[in-house]
Every structure is written in C-alpha cells, then in structure tokens.
C-alpha cells in the first residue's frame, strides 16, 4: 500500500460492498461471520456514514466501533458463536454486534447485550426491529438490557 495508507480500510457504499471489502482485505474468513455481517445491515445501527470503516458517534459520548473491529471480534469468537451456544456483549451500544452474534447462534442460541446507557438500549431494540430482526427479540434469542456493574 501507499505510505500512510492502512490496508485494512474496508469501507463501502452498501452493506454488501462493505462486507465484500472486509473479505477482500482478509478480515473475513469464516463463512458464518460473513453471513452474519451480510444479514445484519449496519445502516440500521449507525445513522451516519454507515459503511465507512471508522468508529462513528452514536450519542452519549459513545461510538459504534469500526466495521473491521466488528469483523475481527466475530472472527476471534467464531469457534464459540455456534448454533445453540450463548454469548454476552458488554457495552452493546446500538445492538449491531449483538445482532450479528444472535444470527450466528441461531434460534436455539442466545445473545445477550448489556449497555449502561438506558436510552441506547431502547434505540438498539428499535434498530433491530428496523433491520427486520424483531423476531430475534420476540423469540428470546437476542436480549438487550440496561445494566451497570
């Protein structure tokens, strides 16, 4: 790459192009991670610059992590995010990563997100529903709760 250019910058103009760039840049290896990131569209969880590969502010002095960080997290946990298993996301923010986890865990698994800002918990639930994933909340395979300490 050119001097000063970071090879992992993988932004796109759509969710599919973002995920494709993450894969092309070697950040997505497990098909289940790729499928989850394709299924959970970041635009519903990140109101501005949804597909830019950098952290974005979501209010309350909090950011949603850059997409490459979500990819790296899901890849690191891929061996544990199998159907029927359980996962905990502390600091669940917009609900994006927790929704990806729930997708990977399937209807017999459970992904729990805990966030200390109650307003973010409420908006994260709305984000999941706007993304067409309300069934995950309804069947209990995705739980988003407010909590601190």
Q: Could you walk me through the main structural features you see in this protein, from its secondary elements to its overall organization?
A:
- The N terminus is likely disordered.
- Strands 3-4-5 form a three-stranded parallel β-sheet.
- It contains six helices and five strands.
- The chain has 149 residues and is an alpha/beta fold.
- The protein is 39% helix and 15% strand.
- Helix 2 crosses helix 4.
Write the layout of secondary structure elements.
Layout: H1 15-24, H2 31-39, E1 56-59, E2 62-64, H3 67-77, E3 86-90, H4 96-105, E4 110-115, H5 118-130, H6 134-138, E5 142-146
Parallel strand pairs: 3-4, 4-5
Antiparallel strand pairs: 1-2
Helix pairs in contact: 2-4
What's this, in brief?
Helices cover about 40% and strands about 15% of the residues. It contains six helices and five strands.
The tally of strands reads 5
Side by side, the strands of the main sheet go 3-4-5
Overall pLDDT metric: 94
Question: Which shape, going by the Cα principal axes?
Answer: globular
The SSE string, one letter per element, is HHEEHEHEHHE
Residue runs with pLDDT of under 50 for 5 or more positions: 1-5
Q: Based on helices, strands and strand pairing, what is the structural class?
A: alpha/beta
What is the rounded distance between the termini?
A: 43 Å
Helical residue percent band: 25-40%
Strand content: 15-25%
Radius of gyration: 15 Å
What does the oligomeric state look like here?
single chain
By DSSP (H or I, 4+ residues per run), the number of helices equals 6
Reported for the largest beta sheet, the result is: 3 strands, parallel
